[in-house]
Write a structure and sequence with these properties.
The chain has 179 residues and is mostly beta strands. It has helices spanning 95-98, 104-107, 144-150; strands spanning 6-9, 12-16, 24-27, 32-43, 48-54, 64-67, 71-74, 79-81, 87-89, 101-103, 111-114, 119-130, 134-141, 153-156, 160-163, 167-170. It has a domain at 18-104: SH3 type barrels (Roll), CATH 2.30.30. Helices cover 8% and strands 47% of the residues. Strands 1, 2, 11, 12, 13, 14, 15 and 16 form an 8-stranded mixed beta sheet that branches. Strands 3, 4, 5, 6, 7, 8, 9 and 10 form an 8-stranded mixed beta sheet that branches. Strand 1 and strand 2 form a beta hairpin. The two termini are 22 Å apart. This is PRC-barrel domain-containing protein. InterPro entries: PRC-brl_dom, PRC_barrel-like_sf.
Length: 179
Amino acid sequence: MKNEKLFIYGEKRVLKGRHLLGLPVVAISEGRRLGMVGDLLLDLQRRRLSALLLEKGGGWRGPALVLFQEVHSVGRDAVTVSQPGMVRELKKEAWLESLPSSSLRCLIGRRIINVQGDEVGTLEDLFFHMPQGKFAGLEVSAGLIADFLWGRDFLEENLVQVFGNEVVVVKKKGRVGKP
């Protein structure tokens, strides 16, 4: 079956980050549901998806995650991992403290400005190359009316200068087209 959540951009398949939110994570070795994707942990310096943060209620004592490199596949209806041991409790992951990261939910709604100081819009989502998890670009909203009339815009990842704590700074003066 075709995955309606995947887009073709150039020669590559890309997936919107929000489409991962709420998907069940399933261990294919046991056919067991391990939890639901609650957020995405991003490595903003390397511009890639680092891990899937699982929502509470998956049978873990605290927050848990699956490293993206250990994901077997991302499908239309679920994310699969080879075995339950791929899920790790968050408190045991010491490397998280040194990783310059953020989550998708923290980035959504962040203002985007260009290097000339003009507001480009608001970050609504991130696109990822699949299956690698590398950033492909940003989905940008110019506001409710503009989104309704013309749709949202797509900024390629190479136009992003920095993901700041308060704003995202992009190199291009204008706005660019659709994915």
